[in-house]
Write a structure and sequence with these properties.
By secondary structure, this protein is an alpha/beta fold. It has one domain: Aminopeptidase (3-Layer(aba) Sandwich), CATH 3.40.630. It is 30% helix and 16% strand. It contains five helices and seven strands. Strands 1-3-2-4-7-5-6 form a seven-stranded mixed β-sheet. Helix 1 packs across helix 5. It is globular and about 45 Å long. The relative contact order is 0.20.
Length: 200
């Protein structure tokens, strides 16, 4: 079963920065889709920067996609490994999944200045590549600590592939799933507005 990935663009013709924001890498972490769709429903179109949104990457309702692959272990990073077939299974080869291929192609075709993914539940702003300043910018808005290491190995991860190997500032926001969803929604609306208008 394969659903169509939706890419929504809030483009500024006087290009400054182009930022990609992705929700629901893991199907059991749906909050990002809610924040993105809520923002798109209520947001003004104007801004200094261009924002590209993928509300939902993974249409399954568990961590893995419909093929049983953890998309955040399937990227063609140098540290990809063939691992055990468990919740973190990265596929039988890197870049094997439709969702992974979609993102790799999208990134190949666009010169993104930053990429942000929304996960849960660790309450941190994790960064890969030259993204420390962006992580601090986001941290001030969400009130989350900044980290450069999530604390465990992530072979074939999106952050490694984009941030460390392609040198694109890459952020993984791990939200606090115990925080009130509407309070978080308000914070993410503020974040998206700031990214569109203030982040130069």
């Amino acid at each position: 079963m394969q659903n169509s990935i939706q890419l929504i663009k809030l483009e500024n013709s006087d290009y400054n920065k182009k930022i990609l924001i992705i929700g629901v890498f893991h199907g059991d972490e749906p909050q990002g889709e809610y924040f993105i769709n809520s923002y798109l429903k209520n947001s003004p179109q104007s801004g200094v920067n261009s924002l590209y949104f993928i509300p939902r990457l993974n249409f399954n309702n568990v961590r893995q996609n419909f093929n049983g692959v953890d998309l955040n272990r399937n990227f063609p990073a140098k540290n990809w490994v063939l691992g055990e077939k468990n919740d973190y299974f990265g596929g039988y080869e890197p870049n094997s999944e439709y969702e992974t291929q979609y993102l790799v192609k999208l990134i190949d075709e666009n010169n993104f200045d930053a990429i942000i993914t929304i996960h849960s539940p660790y309450k941190t702003v994790n960064y890969d590549g030259p993204a420390k300043d962006l992580a601090r910018f986001i941290s001030k808005i969400l009130g989350y600590p900044v980290s450069s290491d999530i604390g465990y190995a992530t072979p074939g991860s999106f952050g490694t592939y984009c941030g460390k190997e392609r040198n694109i500032p890459t952020i993984t926001i791990e939200i606090d799933e115990n925080e009130d969803i509407e309070l978080l929604n308000s914070k993410f609306a503020d974040l998206f507005n700031r990214l569109k208008n203030d982040y130069i």
